[in-house]
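LAB NOTEBOOK - FOLDING QUEUE
OPERATOR: T.R.
BATCH SIZE: 2
PURPOSE: Compare the predicted structure-token outputs for two unrelated chains run back to back under identical settings.
PRIORITY: normal
REVIEWER: second-year student, initials M.K.

ITEM 1
FIELD SEQUENCE / FIELD STRUCTURE:
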Amino acid sequence: MRSFLEVDDLTPGELERVLALSADPSPPQVLAGKGAGLVFEKPSARTRNSMEMAVVQLGGHPVYIRDEELKIDVRESAEDVIRVLAGYHDVVALRVFDHRVLDRMAGLNAVPVVNLLSDEGHPMQALADLLTIKDEFGGFEGRVIAYVGDANNVWRSLALGCAMVGMTSRIACPPDYGPTDVDLDRINVLGGQVEVHDRPGEAVADADVVYTDVWTSMGQEDENEARMRAFEGFSVDERLISGMASHGVFMHCLPAHRGEEVSHDAMESPMSRVFPQAENRMHAARGLLAWLLGEAQGDSTT
């Protein structure tokens, strides 16, 4: 049984296949008559809407489950929760605070488990990001992505995915907010490498893609003031994105704090692909689920 907790749970060939299935306008109905449990310890408009619609497009029935309905490891253990949900659903996808909950659930092999976001990674977002880049450029060979912000869960999954498809990654961040040695080693194992810059302009120069995310993620609210000071000068505005390649595009995983990590003009510029990127969350989710519940289980009809 296969689960999807991080991008590198796939091989490069499997990742390529998932992206191909994401673009299929007539996806295999691998969830026909079946349920998909969607557990949200953290709320999210894009994740809920994209996952529910992806399940529907695969013929299934999505069930949105709020944190207060389960209270994982408070009311019931993670292990008991996944055993119960496996009796109702053919896949369980979760948006959690602690990645270890996902590891424990997936380790039981009760049902395929999908990471909708954790403190360690956001692989579903990375799939949508790669799909957006592929839509824009037709492929990945020779492409350069510059991420402006801290080396958070979004960056980590995206950097792993970029290494798998052969893209060059750069990150611009203040001191103490960059990749760890573990991050860099993990990316190197996949055949990639990351250029770390402390000046956004250097990272963005001639890049094909410029990407940013909020400076303070959900659960980091007590760090907000310190982060605002640390990231002064790291806003992505039209002046900064003018330094990327002439054919380059700007991306943001949303929600955006206009006037902080990104300017209104950058969000609305002709180079922005932010809203097609958001739509691709649905297409990428559909492709991942089609693969996970079809070909990954030996169903050659998909």
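ITEM 2
FIELD SEQUENCE / FIELD STRUCTURE:
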Amino acid sequence: MIAITGATGQLGQLAIEALLASHPASQLVAIARDPQKAKSLSDKGILVRKADYADKAALTAALKGVSKLLLISGSEIGQRESQHRNIIEAAKAAGVKFIAYTSLLHADRSPLLLHVEHVATEKMLAEAGIPYTLLRNGWYTENYLASIPPALEHGVFIGAAADGKISAAPRADYAAAAARVLSEEGHAGKTYELAGDNAWTLGDFVEELSQQSGKKVVYQNMKADDFAAALKSVGLPDGLAEVLADSDSGAAKGALFDDSRELSKLLHRPTTPLSKSIKSAL
């Protein structure tokens, strides 16, 4: 049995879809805070179990009979260290034999604010005594695709990444890699730095967007504080705006760049190019 936390989230659903290509639905356990949101999964024959990242007892019950776990990092920044501790301790109590954890690209040396909770979780895993693999995911292309509509409307794409190279890939690529790690032997004890094959700058992004959309879009680079303020002004929660601005600032320093191609090696195919992602988004 393979369990997936955050099963109704964007990455979780894609990971389940990838796992279904090689596993019967009866071997998958979708752990969800709200089972009602997982109806499409239960309709496929996947076992849905209710558990919140903050409820260790419920997590232990949800992991009963599970041999492998895909621990998708929680979305509540600032709460993830305690939540991940609950899941890891629950996995140990339930007898889980292997954990794959979605960490952050170069977490051990990343300048991003996001790295703190990931490093803490990696340390917990090292001390838990359960075989594990670190899936250090790079940036999701979707993080920038979401800004396409306002960019096309105003002709301006704002950010704070300067000319920093971003080795992004779509969530589906990372999900497929996670599914492979959970489906094959030989991955325990390994750390994978996962990123897109071909890095690009936000200038490259808007150039491709302009070409495909037929509308001229320019990239406006801002100071991180100004970028965060702009994001807040259009309704983004303060915490998320700060994280996105910090991530762009980190990208300017190379934090989102990696040329190891470990993701495509795991996938046994090239990662999805930016041009295809923009085409799909449009």
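REVIEWER COMMENT (ITEM 2): The radius of gyration is 19 Å.
FOLLOW-UP: none requested
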